[in-house]
Design brief:
heterodimer; A: 136 residues; mainly alpha; 3 helices; 0% strand; B: 72 residues; 434 Repressor (Amino-terminal Domain); two-stranded antiparallel ribbon; 5 helices; transmembrane helix (chain A); membrane (chain A)
């Protein structure tokens, strides 16, 4: 497993773990459960995998191709989810004659987009690495 | 309108590497990629960039079309 594959696995597991922890804490903490999205901060430590060891190449063109495709799909997935959620939210509020959206709801939306973005990015990259390994 | 299927790129990297008594790591170090990329390339699971294809061909002292073939 090369460095970028480890980064992809970290992104996938950390983002899914954050979503699971938030879902588990919600019945007790309510909106405070969004604090568990702070687990996404662990992703910052994934740079440890990218440290240089002698002259060995850590990231090459194949890794960059996969990362580019994964980032694009991750961002598009999160963006589409955000847009669709906002459309539904506006329609729902309009139907119920409400003028305002609660700040806590927007807070939830933003955090969920981050988690979805990293989860999709990680999943796409892990799948690409697995597929290439199985094909060869 | 029917889509034309992608042509398959085959290569002789494994054979040339074995003839040159090189390990995958040796070749990877020489052309500046990871060993996993050489594994994917030899298995036909990865299509290299033109730069990488030229580097590999140069490592074996061959022309690029002697290392990579397009099966149409």
């Amino acid at each position: 497993m090369n460095a970028m594959e480890k980064v992809a696995w970290t992104e996938l597991t950390v983002s899914l773990a954050a979503l699971v922890v938030v879902a588990c804490l919600y019945p007790w903490l309510g909106n405070g459960a969004t604090g568990a999205f702070g687990l996404l901060g662990i992703l910052g430590f994934s740079v440890i995998f990218l440290r240089r060891r002698g002259q060995t190449v850590i990231v090459d063109e194949r890794d960059r191709d996969i990362a580019q495709r994964a980032t694009m799909l991750g961002l598009h997935g999160a963006w589409m989810t955000l847009m669709m959620t906002l459309v539904i939210l506006v329609l729902w509020n309009s139907y119920n004659d409400r003028d305002a959206v609660s700040i806590s709801l927007l807070n939830w939306l933003i955090w969920i987009q981050f988690a979805i973005c990293f989860a999709v990015k990680g999943l796409v990259a892990v799948t690409a690495y697995r597929r290439q390994q199985h094909a060869s | 309108m029917p889509r034309k299927s992608e042509p398959q790129l085959t290569n002789s990297v494994r054979e040339l590497r074995t003839e040159s008594a090189m390990t995958q790591q040796d070749l990877a170090d020489q052309v500046g990629v990871t060993r996993q990329t050489i594994v994917a390339l030899e298995g036909g699971a990865y299509t290299p960039s033109l730069t990488l294809a030229l580097r590999i061909a140069r490592t074996f002292g061959k022309r690029v079309e002697q290392v990579f073939q397009l099966d149409e």
